[in-house]
Amino acid sequence: MASPSLSVPYAILPSIQQTHLIDDDDDPLTVDRSIFSLLEKKLYEWKNILKGHVGAWCVGSSHGWIILLDQNGVPLLLNSSSSTTINVPPLPLSFLHPVTYSYFAEYLRKTFIVKAIMMCSSSPSSYILAIIYGSNYKIAYCNSATWVELSDDKQSYCDIVFSNNYLYALTQDGSVEVWNICGQIPKRLILLTPTVEANYKEEKPYLGDNFSRNLYLVVSEKEILLVTRFIGNFDKKWKKMRSLHDKVLFLGANESV
Description:
By secondary structure, the protein is mainly beta. The chain has helices at 93-96, 101-108, 200-207; strands spanning 10-14, 33-37, 42-46, 57-62, 65-69, 75-79, 85-87, 113-119, 128-133, 138-142, 147-149, 157-163, 166-171, 176-180, 187-192, 210-220, 223-233.
């Protein structure tokens, strides 16, 4: 979860005062969490994190906001500092096709949205929420009132970020689309295709025999980075790497920074 004013994210952890494991769906009013500030190296207790949102499921975090789906699968935004909530319009039934709302809420709610991020705004009520969703990894956004689908049936996506009021979308083949979604009609402005081919013969001795790759888009100061993360059965030995100087990348299912 990234702070709106800092480039260093917060980490949400189980509460240090919580002595037993519970299912968030069973007793959400008693769920406490600790927020760890990497910059300050301090823990803050967040009591009753889901109070008033029985059964809510977290699908992402962005700029100090936690993005949830309630028990009926309707999105809502929860501010980690003020506990302010913003109701988001329900996902259109066309996004869920061919299933019904009830089937989605009961069986697909926790897996349907792959990633969810927000565009920063001086007014929380004028938010833009973007998601990657469904088994085909499509992208869509909500501009405070209406959901709009951007992708077609032929394209799948693996990551999205906002920068300078544009939406950058990373496709499964490594191409990057740049969208202007601030106007009445969304427009794809740029399509960037990969220009560097990976040398797997050089990578394999370093990575071991079994690995997979995940691709991420990361906003770093004035640049957009395309980052490859290797996941697999490594040889468990320290390897020399090039310095990131005073920068650190945080990669994952939430917004990468």
